[in-house]
Structure prediction request, 111 residues.
Amino acid sequence: MTYTVEELLKNIEEEKKLTKVWSEKDAARDRATSGIGPHHREVERLQSILTLVKLGVDIIEVRNGIAFINTPKGNVAHYGLRTGKWRLQDDRVWLGSRSPNIFVEKFLSQE
Prediction:
């Protein structure tokens, strides 16, 4: 699946608008608004995808908040878009990273 920066930026703006609507509806219902609704989470995911695309990462597809990424050695890495956790396809252990930038710098550049 190919993502373009323009397309991602457009989607992020749309989700931010929906986040605002979501928060306003919660405020109208006298609920505590933490700002963490489904649209806010989608914004976080899209921002991670945008960062990976800008870094030139080869994303195969995105499913259920996980980006499937081709590595330089031909392996497939799974990257959790909100958590930053990642693993190789055949490994069971998830490793942590603080951001997509660190993931690319520490893992993909060394692989």
